[in-house]
Amino acid sequence: MKARARTTLSSPDDAFRLAIRFLAHRDRTTVQVEQFLTSRGVSSLRAKQAIRRLSELRYLDDAAFARRYAEKRLASRPVGLERLKAELQAKGIADRLADQVVADAFRTVNEDTLAHRVLKAAQRRGRRLTPTQAGRLLHQRGFAEETIDHIMMMFGANEESVHDE
Fold first, then answer.
1. For the whole model, what pTM was predicted?
2. Which of 11, 20, 79, 165 has the lowest CB atom count within 10 Å?
3. Residue 6 pLDDT more than 60?
4. At what angle do helices 12-25 and 30-39 cross, to 10 degrees?
5. Structure confidence by residue, pLDDT tens digits, 53-64
6. Is 9 exposed, middle or buried (0-12, 13-18, 19+ CB in 10 A)?
7. Which helix (H) or strand (E) segment is 86 a member of?
8. Which of 100, 107, 159, 108 is nearest to 134 (CA)?
9. Do residues 42 and 18 lie in contact, with contact meaning Cβ atoms separated by under 8 Å?
10. How does pLDDT run across 120-151, given as a tens digit for each residue?
11. CB contact at 8 A, 79 and 142
């Protein structure tokens, strides 16, 4: 594999165009764009200028990104509150914004409902889960211990009830 030649991007327009190409592939956070630009040889000052311009033009909006990400994530592959927050933070969303977005997302959906959907999806894929496996799966998806305990009580302690619900 050939190493990519590092070019010096001296003008603000060069950095801006590079960022636009990066954003064309998918929605990104400010941190992701800044990391990309600096990894391509753009100075920190030029990267910040490009990011400011992108934000002014509303091509870059961390709050909107976080809301869309949370909505898609909970709809496609549900996770618990803590896992969703950690994923947002890993993408560069500030703690305060991540807290706000997660709180908003979980106002409209119940964590128990999401946990139940996770187990139903595993069942539809033909997986037979023991209660221990079901609990582990929910834990891996970042559901709170209280939620896991509640779901496990709903399903009962025997394997058959995990599959019948």
1. 0.82
2. 11
3. no
4. 120
5. 999 999 999 999
6. buried
7. helix 81-90
8. 159
9. yes
10. 998 888 878 888 999 999 999 999 999 999 99
11. yes
